Amino acid sequence: MKKRGLIVVDLQNEYLPTGKLPLSEIEVASANAARVIADARHKNIPVFHIRHEATNDQSPIFVPGSDGVKIQPGVAPADNEPVIIKHHINAFRDTDLKQQLDAQSVEELIIVGAMSHMCVDAIVRAAVDMGYPVTVLHDACATLDLSFEGVNVPAAHVHAAMMAAFEFGYGTVKSTQDYLSAV
């Protein structure tokens, strides 16, 4: 079996109902992510936390030093777990994420986090392009309602479309329970 690594993408306070960019079902996704993190720690699977931060304090969201930029307490990193700060949608871009994965001999990725249609999407596609087998835990990810040219798309549909795309061409999509129950 290939050595797994868990990547927790942007589960930050900004996405909570009290944040500036609340996501649909974020509390459920965060609770499931916490279960997966606990399992990874128990099994000595390396956990990598991604934290988005704007490049200046004039940004409307993810302002450096703000409460919104902090990782949610329920999924907070342990002392030995790296936090990769990113300034772009793709967590591999201009970060040392790839080097950190290599340093831990990680060959396969489990991905949870936010937002399904942005940062989770970007990291899944980039990871697969780099040759990593990827599993996305769909109920440990969250997104929000979107609209385009007068078409309003509920978060559940945005999320389902992303998970369907991942499953169609990028990797495995499982529920948290199915992942945790697997031998």
UniProtKB/TrEMBL annotation:
Name of the protein in question: Isochorismatase
Transmembrane segments: none
A GO molecular-function descriptor: hydrolase activity
Isochorismatase-like domain span: 6-146
Keyword annotations from UniProtKB, A to Z: Hydrolase
InterPro entries in the record: Isochorismatase-like_dom, Isochorismatase-like_hydrls, Isochorismatase-like_sf
Keyword Iron-sulfur tagged: no
Keyword Kinase: no
